[in-house]
Structures are given as C-alpha cells and as structure tokens.
C-alpha cells in the first residue's frame, strides 16, 4: 500500500508539472506537456487529481487551442477530449462541452489552421458531443 501511495503521489506530481508547463513560453515545452497529459489521461483515471484542478487545466488547454498553431492545437484538442472522458459527473461533461464547442468550431472552420488541427477538432467535437451533450440536436 505504501508503494502504491508513492506511485500515486509521483503521478500527481508529474501531472501538476505538465499542467504548469502548459503556460510556458516555449512551444516545445507546451507540446511535451500536452503529450504527457495525453499519455496520463489515456492510461489511467485521474478523477481525484481533477477535482480541484479541472478549471485551471481547462483554461490552459483552451489557451493552447486558441493561440497555438499546428501540432499544439491538435494535441490540445485531443487532451480536451480525454479530459471530457475523465469528468465524473454528466453535468461537468456537459458544461465542458458547451464551453469548448465554439472553440472547436472556430478552429475547425479556420482555413488557416493546419489540417491536423482541423481534423482533431472535428473528432473532438464529435466525441465530446456524443459523451456530453444532453440535447441530441
């Protein structure tokens, strides 16, 4: 049990570092943080970590999607989709979806955005709508 608790603390420290690095000025640092979050969210549930930090994380990911270019936008849309899966309650998922929908559509319809970013935003919009939208239309 002690070893498991140590691993949990180490994982949370790593996640905290990734969240902090999302606001770094260096693009490569932000992309590495996005890749770390992608790996963490796709390999385990992080609901305890997200209880107090999901708003901060969402704000940082939105900034990466809004102001980033190319791969950064693509990665952030994927991480936002995984974040939607990680949310415990349906109302939190729905709130997140309604917050992200205009941003996904904005990148999706932006002809100057990279093809990869536009594709991943389309996927993110569809998946988040499927798992979080209460209104079927």
TrEMBL record:
InterPro entries attached to this UniProt entry: ARM-type_fold, IFRD, Interferon-rel_develop_reg_N
Q: Which residues form the Interferon-related developmental regulator N-terminal domain?
A: 4-135
The protein's matches in Pfam families, at most eight in alphabetical order, are given as: IFRD
PANTHER family associated with the record = INTERFERON-RELATED DEVELOPMENTAL REGULATOR, INTERFERON-RELATED DEVELOPMENTAL REGULATOR 2
Q: Which family does it belong to?
A: Belongs to the IFRD family.
- Please identify the protein, giving its name as recorded: IFRD2 regulator
Q: Which organism is it from?
A: Upupa epops
């Amino acid at each position: 049990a002690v070893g498991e608790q140590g691993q949990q603390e180490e994982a949370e420290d790593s996640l905290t570092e990734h969240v902090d690095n999302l606001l770094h000025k260096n693009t490569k640092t932000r992309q590495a943080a996005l890749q770390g979050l992608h790996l963490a969210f796709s390999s385990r549930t992080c609901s305890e970590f997200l209880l107090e930090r999901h708003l901060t994380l969402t704000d940082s990911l939105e900034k990466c999607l809004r102001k980033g270019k190319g791969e950064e936008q693509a990665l952030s849309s994927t991480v936002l989709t995984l974040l939607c899966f990680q949310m415990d309650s349906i109302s939190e998922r729905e709130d997140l979806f309604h917050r992200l929908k205009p941003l996904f559509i904005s990148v999706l319809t932006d002809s100057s955005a990279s093809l990869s970013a536009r594709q991943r935003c389309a996927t993110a919009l569809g998946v988040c709508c499927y798992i979080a939208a209460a209104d079927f239309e």
